[in-house]
UniProtKB/TrEMBL annotation:
InterPro entries: DUF5928, Glyco_trans_14, XYLT. Residues 270-525 form the DUF5928 domain. It is found in: Endoplasmic reticulum membrane; Golgi apparatus membrane. It comes from Cereibacter changlensis. It is a single-pass type II membrane protein. This is Peptide O-xylosyltransferase.
Length: 525
């Protein structure tokens, strides 16, 4: 059975470090601690005194002053790794943690998880080919030497970089290494870690290279593991659940995130807020528990993006210059059908095709597989369709030789609606209001990745009101836009009530509109 030696890097909160070590070792695992030398000596003395009698805890031979982005973090990790290998010969895996991490599974579950596959868990994406780095310098991290810290010595950091660029002092990457990048939070088998340590002792050239790279904790272990371990034995993922906001900052978890955290396919989570005392207590008890079942739904990241994005709805792109001067064409009418239940809008549009013979296309700005004619490549991706939306629709009008075109559009796409209403052509909008049962909303949440089959009921109970409000909010925004030609039909409306707005929207006789409104399967889920 797997036995885990946790590599704990910490720099504050001695009481939290003590509690973490006691919690992990009480369940039968081991802990190797590096406590930052920048922290007060009294704090470190408090930790050593409290854990002195715990044979499952060890400390690094020395403490280093660590700084974000520098080699010191890797050096501290290596010190803790060497201490763990020496003190805990029964450890089968080494797992990187920080003081902000907490288990979100039991020790029993974690060991069974690691026993399931003979593999290492570490993010390792190609440094140059992947888009893992979102902002800041890229290859400059490697090909130039960094002796100063960008956060604490910003002027010196960029001055040194500038002079190296001016003088052409770029260096070569070790020829036999393909540099990888990924999260620093890994879980590796003992033999892999032993191979890494042996490599460090043997390859001083590689050590010299990484010592002066920038943010080596995101490249050092990631590169060496990929170099030393066969690819089939590497799982390119971390076992610690973390979310980054769109500002690049790690998201903190609080007391009410307990159920969400347990349903994620990870063993630990970071960062747990210092204020989340109740969450820490519950997760602490959980680690020592036995016989606990963990249904995995894994919707955490998509749920965070959904909830955090509600306050940022608006126009993402300003109109391009070729769009502001283009038009669908005077004398043309664009008929937009908007409905949150896409299948209802598609059925309605199909009936319009059958009854009126109007050319119509489904959610062309929302579904990549919506059938479209070959328009020279402009129709090939959703990104291209949205970017060149007016040109795309103008080409559809021309291809089908029509002056009226029906399309489906999601209620959230208010920016597209506003753009089309601002065109010199005529635009009309038909909103189809549907009833939403809890069962339908649960299915919707699963279809869009906000929930899974195993999402706890407590999470669903909190999520459903937000989804329902979000749908109502989209409808309210459409009305607040005060579009001139806005029509509405309702699932709760009678055939007679829906006939008049349908006739006005399509510009057809009421007899034809009634035939469409009377479609008996239109609103069936």
């Amino acid at each position: 059975m797997a036995k885990i030696a946790y590599i704990l890097l910490c720099h504050k909160d001695p009481e939290g470090v003590i509690a973490q070590a006691e919690r992990l070792t009480a369940a039968g695992d081991f802990v190797s601690i590096h406590f930052d030398a920048r922290a007060p000596r009294a704090a470190f003395a408090r930790i050593r005194a409290a854990l002195a009698g715990n044979a499952s805890v060890c400390f690094t031979a020395r403490r280093l002053k660590c700084g974000w982005g520098g080699w010191s973090l890797v050096a501290a990790t290596l010190l803790a790794v060497r201490a763990a290998l020496e003190r805990f010969p029964r450890a089968t895996h080494l797992y990187m943690l920080s003081g902000d991490c907490m288990p979100i599974k039991s020790a029993e579950y974690a060991r069974a998880f690691l026993d399931r596959e003979e593999a290492d868990y570490i993010e390792s994406f190609d440094f140059f080919a992947s888009d893992w780095i979102k902002t800041g310098i890229r290859e400059e991290r490697l090909i130039y030497r960094h002796y100063f810290n960008e956060r604490t010595q910003k002027r010196l950091f960029y001055a040194a970089l500038d002079w190296q660029q001016r003088l052409g002092l770029a260096r070569r990457i070790p020829a036999d290494l393909q540099v990888q990048i990924g999260s620093q939070w890994w879980c590796l088998r003992r033999r892999t870690v032993e191979a890494v340590v042996e490599f460090c002792d043997r390859r001083r050239d590689v050590m010299r290279f990484f010592r002066t790279t920038w943010i080596p904790d995101e490249t050092f272990f990631q590169t060496l593991v990929r170099h030393l371990v066969p690819e089939p034995e590497i799982r390119t993922r971390t076992l610690s659940f973390l979310i980054f906001s769109d500002y690049g900052m790690p998201v903190s978890f609080y007391n009410d995130h307990y159920d969400l955290l347990l349903s994620q396919d990870y063993l630990f989570a970071r960062k747990i807020s210092p204020d989340a005392v109740e969450l820490k207590e519950r997760l602490g008890r959980l680690y020592a528990a036995t016989g606990v079942s963990f249904p995995i739904s894994n919707e955490g990241r998509s749920l965070f993006r959904f909830l955090s994005g509600r306050g940022r709805i608006g126009r993402r792109f300003a109109p391009r210059f070729w769009e502001t001067e283009s038009s669908l064409g005077r004398g043309r009418t664009l008929l937009m059908v908007t409905c949150k239940k896409w299948h209802v809008a598609k059925r309605l549009v199909e009936r319009v095709r059958q009854v009126c013979g109007l050319p119509a296309v489904d959610y062309l700005f929302n579904e990549a597989d919506t059938p479209l004619p070959d328009l020279g490549g402009i129709q090939s991706t959703l990104e291209k369709r949205t970017r060149h939306r007016r040109a795309l629709l103008r080409m559809l009008f021309d291809t089908w030789e029509t002056d009226r075109l029906v399309i489906c559009i999601d209620p959230a796409s208010l920016d597209l609606m506003q753009d089309f209403f601002g065109d010199r052509s005529e635009a009309r909008l038909l909103e189809v209001e549907c009833d939403f049962s809890d069962d339908y909303l649960i299915g919707h949440a699963r279809r869009v990745g906000l929930a899974g089959d195993q999402t706890p009921q407590e999470t669903m109970d909190r999520l459903l009101p937000t989804i329902r409000y979000d749908i109502r909010f989209e409808s309210d925004r459409i009305r607040e836009a005060e579009f001139e030609n806005l029509f509405c039909i309702r699932q709760s409306g009678s055939v007679a009530e829906n006939t008049v707005p349908l006739a006005g929207f399509l510009g057809i006789p009421e007899a034809q509109a009634r035939e469409i409104a009377a479609t008996d399967y239109l609103f069936v889920d």
